[in-house]
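Troubleshooting: if your tokenizer reports a length mismatch, compare your output against this known-good record of 295 residues.
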Amino acid sequence: MEDDDILDTAEGPQPRPQSLMLTFFGNHVLEEGDLAVYSGSIIDVLGRVGVGEQAVRSTLTRMVNRGLLQRQREGRKMFFGLTPQATRVLIDGRTRIWKQGAVNDDWDGSWTLLGFSLPDSWKRQRHDLRSRLTWSGFGALYSGLWIAPGQVDVSAVVTDLGLTAHVKIFHARAAEVTDIEQMIRDTWDLESIAARYVAFDKRWTSHLGNGTDDDPIGTRLRLVSDWLRTIRTDPRLPARHLPPAWPARTAQETFHRVADRTHPALKAARTALETTPLRIHDSSEVAGRLQADGG
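Known-good structure output:
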């Protein structure tokens, strides 16, 4: 997800349709294997969170054109399934949400450093690299030197962007003379990161306080999309080097409370969605899916 996938409104940050679409497929398709979903089912679920039919259809077309979804016609109906590229994105997101979490209590003291030098004219490549590095937990220590806590494997990111010849990656530990707390404050905008967690916790604590949830499918879609938006710029910095009472812990607890409440929605959606097995069209796509799944 990139910054322009978020629309700020008076009611707070609202994910754009593509972000919600990816969350939909992550919630209801990723764990089920190679499935395609009928467009009418997608329209129904995204309609629960305020995305109109025309916006859904145009988003599906745009995501097909971007290589994130593939079309599959069955009779008079059109179905949509994940491409290997989208599968990799969603598996990464699943790891961040459900396995790593937002709080880094077990940092081993190591750092990953990535240096790059790109031609001035490569503005799009520079933007894409910085965006992907930010999602992977990196911050700009200096203009062409980025750093992330722990052993972070970004070789696939660099390869995907075709920048292998322009990037150098190292793993290291800081010398005792280095003030890690100061380095963190200089490299990352801690106030902005903390504010996102505080705002998330406030929104969803209020939701829990309502006591009822008439649409758990829609709620879970909004919840996971909102949580991804919240954690996407958080590098999971070592907790022992962060300010006291870092709000990520409380926000994560709130996220899991709402997620537990809406978990039955996953089963309900599986019975409500109209799906069909996804046909894989060529050998390169098969190889891509096997690689995405670790096969």
